[in-house]
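Q: Structure tokens for this one, please.
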Amino acid sequence: MRRKKCAAALREDKMAVIKELIRSEADGTLSFGDYSLHAKAKLDNFEHQGDVYKVKTCQEITKLERNGMFVYESVPGTTVTDLNANDTGITFMVEGDEDAQVTVELESEAEYDITIDNADAGKMKTNLGGKLSLSVELGEHPVAVSIKKC
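A: Here is the predicted structure, written as tokens:
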């Protein structure tokens, strides 16, 4: 019970959830997700830099698709800000009420250098489908994640 109270207090302090579910930032990055929602919410056909995005989010899961293809998923749900994906990798800030399992889709069978909260988390290779999964310890502040192709 104490963890739930702490999580609720932490959520009130952070308040960085994306109430519009997804938005384009002035610097060209993307922000999405609302881990405070009890029921699933989704938004389709969000246009950003020539692509069409779909987001589904709630306390249990946050998922992002671009042009019908998988981009990001977290369990439990998270809020992601400053998402920047390109041919060399993906960077973003993530936050939530509890530690999360994050899966992103990149180039298949490629090796990537992972940095989480400015600490080297080693190298990982994507599977045949291009998916890479990692655990992110979430706390009182957003955590920076950088996944760069080696």
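A few notes: The chain has one domain: 2-149. The longest strand covers residues 41-48.
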